[in-house]
TrEMBL record:
Signal peptide: 1-20
SUPFAM superfamilies: Thioredoxin-like
Protein known as: Redoxin
Pfam families: AhpC-TSA
InterPro entries linked: AhpC/TSA (IPR000866), Thioredoxin-like_sf (IPR036249), Thioredoxin_domain (IPR013766), Thioredoxin_ResA/DsbE_sf (IPR050553)
Keywords noted in UniProt: Signal
Top-level taxon of the source organism: Bacteria
Matching CDD domains: TlpA_like_family
Every Thioredoxin domain range: 243-401
Length: 409
């Protein structure tokens, strides 16, 4: 990640503050990310101490992201997120307030957003005393990215005024969302260190949602509407990837994290059922898929199963990619090879440069299933993770069925 001179100077000045600050109070804080257009993205953090060291838990509905990389010196606080090129640089204003910036590495410029943390705030959005709106269930939706609409499914779970849910799109899900219904307005947000999302909309009645806005990161904004439809689905034809005519194998050769080259012709993959995972360490859906795949592999590799991950990172710099992927590898106890393609995820020619045997890679993650004969049998695009509830359970059943069929062949 690029260094930002004014931020370095800012933190240096803070470190020179001679007055020792008392430990931060434990309990819930509300963090507010400030966008340039005046809108904010809020989330909640529980601050604790373990063996005298600070510990964070970032809450998104039922998800709790543990953060241990926290350093405090006088009133200067540096927080390194456990995954992604993501960190907070904060100043302790007083016992109840922190101010600073959230910094995230991307494929182009480094993204910087002002952030404020306020103590004793367990809710992220204001709640009215009551609401007549009841929106629990599945909704069909249309989002508009610029002028281009795309379909989605929104799922809500309302408990009084509290609201949780997720959004499923052709590329995957928006993970765990948390918020509230206040009068006729819904609020939902999430923060995982890579993505910061905020959804709001007007609940016209129990069947129609209008005037939706979806704020992502520092600048992105989309419009959306939704209608109650318990049978709503996301068409997977928008994201499908296929082998090109006449092709049934892959011929890649890329270095692993120790600079050793790996290819599908290596002995370890012969006569095995193999999954090739196309992913990136910057990608939250890839994180969820990797957590599942790594656990499955470690429990089943002795059955004649192999996996290999091909990483499309934010940079072509090997060492930058290696650093991010090492953290990813350690976080999920990945014992199969992770290869660095050397091609940026945002490269429009990433397919041609790495896997010319398949049609355009439309999204990450994508998983290719190989039989014992070394040919591709199935391709699965996108990933609906544990935040999607029944959709995640459906995926697991399908995955187990595919693997058992391949192992029998």
């Amino acid at each position: 990640m690029k260094k930002i001179p004014w931020i370095i100077g800012f933190i240096t000045v803070l470190a020179l503050n001679a007055a020792a600050n008392p430990p931060l109070p434990t309990g819930w804080w509300r963090a507010t990310l400030q966008r340039a257009d005046g809108h904010t993205i809020d989330f909640n953090v529980a601050m604790q101490y373990k063996n005298g060291k600070p510990l964070w838990f970032i809450r998104n509905a039922t998800e709790k992201i543990q953060v241990t990389g926290i350093e405090q010196k006088q009133d200067s606080i540096l927080v390194q997120m456990p995954l992604f090129e993501s960190e907070f640089r904060l100043q302790q204003v007083n016992n109840n307030t922190l101010r600073g910036v959230w910094i995230k590495g991307t494929s182009s410029v480094t993204q910087v957003m002002p952030v404020t943390f306020v103590y004793n705030q367990s809710k992220r959005y204001p709640q009215a005393k009551q609401t007549k709106q009841k929106i629990t269930g599945r909704w069909g939706a249309t989002f508009i990215d610029g002028k281009k609409p795309y379909p989605a499914v929104v799922e809500f779970k309302q408990n009084g005024l509290a609201l949780t849910g997720t959004v499923l799109t052709p590329t995957g899900d928006y993970r765990y969302l948390e918020g509230a219904v206040s009068n006729d307005t819904l609020h939902l947000s999430t923060f995982d260190g890579s993505h910061a999302y905020y959804f709001r909309a007007t609940v016209k009645n129990d069947s129609v949602i209008t005037d939706g806005e979806y704020f992502s990161g520092a600048t992105s904004i989309e419009k959306w509407t939704a209608w109650r439809d318990e049978k709503a689905i996301v068409p997977d034809t928008l994201s499908a990837v296929y082998m090109k005519r006449g092709e049934d194998k892959l011929h890649f050769r890329f270095p692993d994290l120790d600079s050793n080259y790996v290819s599908m012709s290596d002995p370890r993959f012969q006569n095995k059922v193999v999954i090739v995972q196309l992913m990136g360490s910057w990608c939250p859906n890839c994180m969820d898929e990797t957590a599942f795949l790594s656990d499955y592999y470690n429990k089943n590799k002795q059955r004649g199963i192999e996996m290999v991950a091909l990483a499309y990172e934010n940079s072509t710099d090997f060492h930058r990619s290696q650093k991010s992927l090492r953290r990813f590898q350690q976080r999920f106890n990945i014992t199969y090879p992770m290869l660095i393609t050397g091609v940026r995820a945002a490269d429009s020619l990433r397919t041609e440069k790495t896997l010319p045997e398949i049609t355009r890679i439309k999204m990450l993650p994508t998983a290719l299933f190989f039989g014992r004969d070394g040919t591709v049998k199935r391709i699965h695009t996108g990933f609906y993770g544990p935040g999607t509830g029944e959709h995640y359970e459906t995926f697991k059943k399908e995955f187990y069925s595919i693997m058992e069929d391949l192992l029998k062949q």
